[in-house]
């Protein structure tokens, strides 16, 4: 029973470290990188003035009435 807590603590600390690194890697490669690529693809062809004019024509803005 000597050093039982220290032995179990070492095992659980290493286990928690590897699980957290695994979760971080899964998040980065499974969610963050595809999201970055999707945003980059969207903004490649995005025209903010065209979008503004569409919203203006729809009457979204009070300060910029539709033409």
Structure characterization notes:
The chain has helices at 4-44, 48-58. It is mostly helical. It has a domain at 30-66: Mitochondrial cytochrome c oxidase subunit VIc/VIIs (Cytochrome C Oxidase, Chain I), CATH 4.10.93. The longest helix is centred in the middle third of the chain and has 41 residues, at 4-44. Pathway: Energy metabolism; oxidative phosphorylation. Keywords: Membrane, Mitochondrion, Mitochondrion inner membrane, Transmembrane, Transmembrane helix.
Features of this protein?
67 residues, mainly alpha, 2 helices, Cytochrome C Oxidase, Chain I, rod-shaped, single chain
Concise structural overview:
By secondary structure, this protein is mainly alpha-helical. The chain is built from two helices and no strands. It has a domain at 30-66: Irregular (Cytochrome C Oxidase, Chain I), CATH 4.10.93.
Give the helix/strand layout.
Layout: H1 4-44, H2 48-58
Name the CATH architecture of the domain at 30-66.
Irregular
**Average pLDDT metric:** 95
Q: Name the CATH superfamily classification of the domain at 30-66.
A: Mitochondrial cytochrome c oxidase subunit VIc/VIIs
Counting H and I runs of at least 4 residues, what is the number of helices? Answer: 2
> What level of helicity do the residues show?
over 70%
What is the element string, with H for helices and E for strands?
HH
Specify Rg, calculated over alpha carbons: 26 Å
Q: Based on helices, strands and strand pairing, what is the structural class?
A: mainly alpha
N-to-C span? 83 Å
Report the strand count: 0
CATH topology of the domain at 30-66: Cytochrome C Oxidase, Chain I
List the uncertain runs: none
What is the beta-strand fraction?
under 5%
**Main sheet properties:** none
CATH class type of the domain at 30-66: Few Secondary Structures
> What gross morphology would you assign?
rod-shaped
């Amino acid at each position: 029973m000597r050093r039982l807590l220290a032995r179990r603590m070492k095992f659980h600390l290493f286990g928690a470290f590897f699980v957290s690194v695994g979760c971080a890697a899964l998040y980065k490669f499974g969610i963050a990188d595809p999201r970055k690529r999707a945003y980059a693809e969207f903004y490649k062809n995005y025209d903010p003035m065209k979008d503004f004019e569409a919203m203006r024509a729809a009457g979204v803005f009070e300060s910029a009435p539709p033409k």
